[in-house]
Amino acid sequence: MFIHAIYIFIAYLVDLVVGDPRFLPHPVVIIGKFISRLEKIIRKIFTREEQLKKAGLLFPLVIVGGTYLIVSLLIYGAGLIHEWLAIALEIWLISTTIAVKGLGEAGMEVYRHLKNNDLAEARKSLGMIVGRDTDHLDESEISRGTIETVAENIVDAIISPLFFAVIGGAPLAMAYRAVNTLDSMVGYKNEKYINLGWASARLDDVANFIPARLTAIVLLFAVWMKAFNVKNTFIMILRDARKHPSPNSGFTEAGVAGALGIQLGGLNYYGGIASNRAKMGEATRKINADDIINTIRIMMLTTFLFGAFVLTITFAMNFV
Description:
mainly alpha; single chain; two-stranded antiparallel ribbon
């Protein structure tokens, strides 16, 4: 088991250094294409809205189950050729399920534009990573959107796939990414997906339940090590985490808000339609671009500490 944990930590380092090279096909992109094809098939077969409720179960069964099966067969086949090929494939596949480098770079891109006083480019870069309207946002609101995205994705894009990799290696980590991709594509509570996407949205909530709460604990250590306000972080997690529309995303967003002494949430626009998100944290000051940097630092240390924690626990278990 300790050797398995080492593979996972190496995968973390691979993503941290290499990220997602554009010349290699990304498994999540492939999963997304299969989701789109399955949706077209389902909508052709099930034409009535009441049928879509049951048909929504096909997404987890086919996409998540199929992903797990295919990845398991790939690693098994690689092992038949050579043990080291299977290990290399396992490490690479796990690295594609996490996005430490990509998340950090996305935040830094917005930060650089803000520091160059280029609000137009900052809005454009933010629009690539959020669903809200960004055309008329000022520096503070651009920074808030970036911070919320980085904080929320500490769980979805890093800790959760690492958590499932610990339990079931690359097959389970990739199955989690399938769950998360389903949620991002069909897990909406709008007219189009309220019936078809309910199972995908619910499964994503269940999958992230434990990782989100583990992340909150590790986040406290990261905040303490970075000399931010750990007491306020703890208070805001307890007070505000459950205000978030997601049962899981609020833990890291409230934690980051508490650590930095800022307030996240509030008024957003989606396609010109106003949406008021619950506010988390106390607005002790106005949010600025430097808060993006501090959020990225918290994200990097939190994820590193989680990896180190996994290594330590599995190493200790070898001697029990």
